[in-house]
Amino acid sequence: MRRLIVKDRYLAWDNGEPFFYLGDTAWEIFHRLNRDEMAYYFEQRARQGYTAVQGVILAEFEGITAPNAYDRLPLMFADGKPDPAQPDLEGEYSYWDHVDYAVDTADRHGLFITMLPTWGDKFNRLWGVGPEIFTDENAYIYGKWLAARYAEKENIIWMLGGDRPLEPQHRRIVDAMAKGIREMDANHLITFHPPGCRTSLNTIENADYIDFHTSQTGHGIEQCYESDRVMLEMAAGSPKPYMDSEPRYEDHPACFNDRIGYYWNADDVRQNAYWNLMTGSCGHTYGNHCVWSMNKKPGSYFPFTWNEALLHPGAEQIHLIKELRLSHDYFSFRHAPELIGADYAGMGHLAAGRGDDYGYIYTPLGLPVTVNLYEFKGSGQLRAGWFDCRTGEAQVFAVLPNRGQTTLVPPTQGKGCDWVLVIEEVH
To answer: Distance between CA 134 and CA 142 in Å, rounded?
Structure first.
């Protein structure tokens, strides 16, 4: 069985081949879709270039009390309450047969399932439906059983948490679940999904079972224009890989308020993707508000059906961050603010990363880029080109000396006119 490993702050296959985590949030996929719908979903996400799908076993929307598409529940009941220590396996087409189908179908399309054993409201209701059903003891049993079922599947990444803060009693539950998983599965990576405007570093401090960290920069304005700062905080706080597992979703009401009349769109989700990429993140997660929920009844808060939203522009464009990263030496890439000669504030701020013989500078509004050419120490000749974040088209437009500064102007300017300046040393 091939394995994903951590290599030089990035993810890789165990043969050393780079792996770029490009995720989609499909939190309700096991709970709300039937098999034909699942097959279509995975086919489209594979075509669009994703490498992982984030789904929740015990889902947020009444995932343990409302049945799935085949009228099945995941758990047996004890004393009138769903019991995590007793998965319901009876009969044909059990809930777990349906999860198995999703894992196997994703695998046929070359996709990982980033599997959340439960949404956070099942151990810390706080908001949402719940009910709270986990204790330290049954969390360990559930984690151990779940890991045994999927330990031999190549395409699994474990993601604990689920959008809730952790008081000490909740931390004990997550730790117990992780212990159960790790006892039965030493091969798959484990990460953590934190609540909004938090990271796994400041939510589940000192958890040695975490292989890579994630943040939820979220859907409000608190962090959406500074998500790269959050990535750099994770980089400074741990030597492990890091990424954003829930940035702004396409088609999400800005700030959770549909009365504002603005929904985050492809331009917005690209900003977070490229800002984060330039920090040296190990990947990125895209999301669409109507897809994670597998919405089937459009309204003001969920404006499209899931299968309409599946093909929206941001979903079709996000793979270009993966193509850009894989187009040059992968493991030498690092955050490179030294390439930027002058910056802008707020939504217009630039971000830069570089490898051993190349560099990228992202300009989210197409504003002019002043680049410190003297930071490149190679042959003396530099090739400069603009990478179009909407189409992936790239064209060399100049050859420059590796000395001094120069200011370069992208082909277009304004919101939605984002570009990456690509500088390459000519050998």
So the answer is: 9
Six token digits for residue 132: 């709270």
Pairing of strands 340-342, 369-372: antiparallel
Measured from the Cβ of residue 195, the count of other Cβ atoms closer than 10 Å reads 19
Q: What pTM, to 2 d.p., does this model score?
A: 0.97
Quote the distance between the C-alpha of residue 280 and its chain's center: 14
Residues 6+ apart with CB under 8 A from 62: 129
For residue 174, what is the enclosing H or E element? helix 168-184
Taken in order of first residue, the domains within the chain and their CATH numbers are 4-326 (3.20.20.80), 336-425 (2.60.40)
Counting other chains too, the contacts that 123-130 makes at CB distance below 8 Å and 24 or more residues apart are 123/164, 123/170, 123/173, 123/174, 124/164, 124/165, 124/166, 124/167, 124/170, 126/164, 126/165, 128/60, 129/60, 129/61, 129/62, 129/65
Asked if pLDDT for residue 92 goes beyond 90, the answer is no
Strands (DSSP E) contained in 142-299 are 156-161, 190-193, 198-199, 213-216, 242-244, 283-286
Q: What is the pLDDT of residues 169-208, one digit of tens each?
A: 999 999 999 999 999 999 999 999 999 999 999 999 899 9
Q: Three-state SS for 75? A: strand
* Cα(240)–Cα(14) distance, integer angstroms: 17
Tell me the residue type at 68: N
Coil, helix or strand for 403? coil
- Which two structure tokens, joined as six digits, stand for 332? 């030498």
What pLDDT is recorded for position 212? 98
Name residue 93's amino acid: Y
User: Whole-angstrom Cα distance, residue 126 to residue 149?
Assistant: 30
Q: Whole-angstrom Cα distance, residue 46 to residue 193?
A: 23
User: Is residue 278 classed as helix, strand or coil in its secondary structure?
Assistant: coil
Per-residue H/E/C for 212-250: CEEEECCCCCCCCCCHHHHHHHHHHHCCCCEEECCCCCE
Please identify which residue in the block is written with the tokens 């047969």: 97
Give the model confidence (pLDDT) of 156-168 as tens digits: 999 999 999 999 9
User: CA 46 to CA 417: how far, in whole Å?
Assistant: 27
Report the candidate in 381, 396, 281, 394 with the shortest Cα–Cα distance to residue 333: 281
Judge residue 15's burial from the number of C-beta atoms within 10 Å of its C-beta, 0-12 exposed, 13-18 middle, 19 or more buried. Answer: exposed
